[in-house]
Amino acid sequence: MAESGLAMWPSLLLLLLLPGPPPVAGLEDAAFPHLGESLQPLPRACPLRCSCPRVDTVDCDGLDLRVFPDNITRAAQHLSLQNNQLQELPYNELSRLSGLRTLNLHNNLISSEALSGPSVSAPVPPCRGSGCQPSDGDLPPHLWGEAGTQLSNAGLPPDAFRGSEAIATLSLSNNQLSYLPPSLPPSLERLHLQNNLISKVPRGALSRQTQLRELYLQHNQLTDSGLDATTFSKLHSLEYLDLSHNQLTTVPAGLPRTLAILHLGRNRIRQVEAARLHGARGLRYLLLQHNQLGSSGLPAGALRPLRGLHTLHLYGNGLDRVPPALPRRLRALVLPHNHVAALGARDLVATPGLTELNLAYNRLASARVHHRAFRRLRALRSLDLAGNQLTRLPMGLPTGLRTLQLQRNQLRMLEPEPLAGLDQLRELSLAHNRLRVGDIGPGTWHELQALQMLDLSHNELSFVPPDLPEALEELHLEGNRIGHVGPEAFLSTPRLRALFLRANRLHMTSIAAEAFLGLPNLRVVDTAGNPEQVLIRLPPTTPRGPRAGGP
Questions:
Q1: Of 46, 54, 126, 220, which one has the fewest beta carbons inside 10 Å?
Q2: 3-class secondary structure for 230-293?
Q3: Shortest CA distance to 146 belongs to which of 188, 174, 182, 179?
């Protein structure tokens, strides 16, 4: 290095040569990039042992710090102090950092009394969804973490957010707040309060947040008495409200018209009243899974105000029938794990626009599914009837179906008539039934010209069913009683790509050498779990030679 350069920086030389704490991270590379080159200007200020990868970012993560670091640049927008041993936050030092947008205090020793004034009001970067992750261009991923400082309301005085008028996203999740903090910034667009101990939202606590679009209150202790008709009524921009995993027994009153998504799953709701939904006429998604809705939980007309409702989730309740008078524009009805035992001719006539219907794991028996139950569902694309008590395929299935799930029933026969017209069906699951090859009537697969995936696993088949659909690409036959695969087994399925024969009764010579001729696309043949290892010879067009079937 040139002597003239050294003479210019005597104090810097002294700092680098004297014994003591390690130099500022990145100083050498930044100030002396290459030996022999002229010196560059000193790097920006950065606290001892911390790193400053960008002008606006200070990373003091995991340094066992006991006191708040000094020498933090005023330009800092993102400050990470997670995984340290800080016990207090100096108000004067934080107030100097007026441009701070993100303050990460996850995993420290800060008590609620140590947090006072605006020191906890630092905003966080915009979030994407309920996971609250930074958007592109904000804080680097390795600096991001949930604020885990175990705040209580004692650490949030009425003026805690004074001077924080620019905050758009505020995360106070994973703490010990027992009620909604007062005097929240009116500029808020997203407020994360999940995973606290909140049992009450004080009257007027959200009266000024007219720009709030997303409010996350899941995993708290909210009860009906902790909310009133004015709690959400002033939130004229609210689109997403998550109240799941609380202790509510009714739908909250005063919901705003702008609300598009209402998550009430995992509460104790027994009945839905139409009066509570009148204000939320713009609702598109209503999630009520895992509540206590019984036979009278959704009376006729309860959802009538929700004319634009797109999706209704009712998973895991005690409903014994499809709710009557559903909104006409409903597109997805998700009703698995209830007690629905019958489908009448008119149960689904009010929702002709349904594209997805999930009735899996109910108590449907073939004798109680009316042959005209699906007649109005011309738009239906996905039908899930898995886990019921069906002994035969339902009649009158919509011809536009793409996916049909019938696994884990008690099917004993397949006949062509119920499948007639399903020329757009791409996926059919018949796994875990009681089908034998002799129970599959001639011509059963004839009209399924678009079928690409067929699951016949865990039945009682003794050989590969004949005349399978020509378009078939994936065939599941595992867990049957197949002991022989003849040379003509796959003549009707030239597009086959994957074949699963695991856990059957195959032996070394059970598969004819010619079985896979004419299958140029075949890439997977699974024969593991049979009594003997089965050698598979793929078609000659495949570059690989003979191999043993396996997982």
A1: 54
A2: CCCCCCCCCCEEECCCCCCCCCCCCCCCCCCEEECCCCCCCCCCHHHHCCCCCCCEEECCCCCC
A3: 174
Tokens of 67: 């006191």
Q: Which of 393, 388, 477 is nearest to 437 (CA)?
A: 477
> Cα dist. 540→357, 491, 493, 511 in Å?
44, 16, 17, 17
Q: State how far the Cα of 58 lies from the Cα of 7, in Å rounded to an integer.
A: 31
Instruction: Output the pTM of the full model.
Output: 0.76
Residues pairing with 121 in the sheet? none
Instruction: Please tell me the distance from the alpha carbon of residue 100 to that of residue 55, in angstroms, as a whole number.
Output: 12
Contact 340, 313 (CB under 8 A): no
Distance between CA atoms of residues 256 and 476, nearest Å: 49
Which residues, 6+ apart, have CB-to-CB distance to 30 below 8 Å? 40, 43
Strands 356-358 and 382-384: parallel
Interval 429-445 mean pLDDT: 96
How many C-beta neighbours within 10 Å does residue 8 have?
Answer: 11
Structure letter (DSSP) for residue 414? B
Answer yes or no: is 530 within a domain.
Answer: yes
Distance CA 370, CA 344 (A): 5
Number of other residues whose CB lies within 10 A of the CB of residue 186: 15
Q: How many residues are there in the chain?
A: 551
Task: Check residue 266 and give its pLDDT.
Answer: 98
The Cα-based distances of 270 to 286, 289, 302, 419 in angstroms read 15, 12, 13, 39
Is 529 a member of any domain? yes
**Total domains in the fold of the chain:** 2
State which residues form the domain around 467. 452-551
Tens digits of per-residue pLDDT, 102-127?
666 666 664 434 333 333 333 333 33
Q: Judge residue 413's burial from the number of C-beta atoms within 10 Å of its C-beta, 0-12 exposed, 13-18 middle, 19 or more buried.
A: middle
Residue corresponding to tokens 């909104």: 327
How many other CB atoms sit within 10 Å of the CB of residue 101? 21
Q: Is 125 inside any structural domain?
A: no
Return the CATH number at 504: 3.80.10.10
Chain segment 30-73, per-residue pLDDT in tens = 332 333 333 344 456 799 899 999 988 989 999 999 888 888 88
CA dihedral of residues 171, 173, 174, 178 (deg, nearest 10): 130
Q: Does a structural domain hold residue 163?
A: no
**The residue type at 549:** G
Q: Are 25 and 51 in contact (CB under 8 A)?
A: yes
Q: What share of the chain is helix, strand, coil (3-state, %, to 5)?
A: 10, 15, 75
